[in-house]
Design brief:
By secondary structure, the protein is mainly α. 65% of the residues lie in helices and 9% in strands. The relative contact order is 0.11.
């Protein structure tokens, strides 16, 4: 499988759930901001409402920044995937001869998860992005 294909198959369910929560918070803030604007237009206390509006606008800007950061932080690019795969070349060389304890340590350090589907007789492998290239070397 190519790095491009691997990046297309990244598991982003958690990513999508986090994005959905941020979007829900943005919708709530938009509703509150609309209410504050309506109160200002209706002749409410301009000073107090302006302060609240500024706080809500700051919150909204912060959520937008978090959403933008979240959009780009969790998924790997093909270049990042290539770099990690190149780094793993050393590990791949020792796996065939490694004892089960060593293999377990390597897989755990990479955040590797294997899921076996008995009905389809397939194995799905996923790895956490939290692994740091270069962390596992020389058969450790």
């Amino acid at each position: 499988m190519t790095p491009e294909a691997l990046t297309q198959h990244q598991d982003d369910d958690r990513h999508s759930a986090d994005q959905a929560a941020l979007h829900a918070q943005l919708r709530e803030l938009d509703r509150r901001i609309a209410n504050l604007l309506a109160a200002i237009e209706a002749g409410g206390d301009l000073s107090a409402l302006t302060q609240q509006l500024q706080r809500r606008t700051d919150e909204r800007n912060g959520l937008h920044a978090r959403l933008n950061q979240h959009d780009h932080a969790d998924l790997w690019t093909p270049a990042q995937m290539t770099a990690v795969l190149d780094e793993l070349g050393g590990i791949a060389a020792i796996l065939p001869t490694a004892d089960p304890t060593t293999k377990t340590a390597i897989y755990a350090s990479l955040g590797l998860r294997l899921e076996y589907n008995h009905a389809q007789k397939t194995i799905r492998a996923t790895a956490d992005k939290a692994c740091v290239p270069g962390r596992v070397r020389g058969g450790t």
